Amino acid sequence: MKKKFIVKEHVDFTNIIQKGKYYKSKYFIIYIKKNDLEHYRFGISVGKKVGNAVIRNKVKRQMRMIIDNYKKNYQIGMDYIIIIRSNYVEGAFLDIKNAFEDIINKINRSNKENKNEIQ
Prior knowledge:
By secondary structure, this protein is of the alpha+beta class. 45% of the residues lie in helices and 20% in strands.
């Protein structure tokens, strides 16, 4: 993932979490909010309850890989914050990948419905 596609600032994280819409899964929570940019951005947060530093870094690497696999499904001009739950470590990678795909599809469906209501 390139740097321009990453949410780094704490202020941005808190703003997206407080004002954005969220979708829950067994393994993570995804917050979304519109941004004024010409591209989407992602932020990943892994708390200490998930595991030690080695496990947290592994989780972030896996999530980045999953994010890169579904590039075509993201909406331009959106920020996504992924907060990893402690159940993530217990789940199989394929289950986590499927859960992520389901949530992204759910986000896209709900945004299409909102656009149709506005028009």
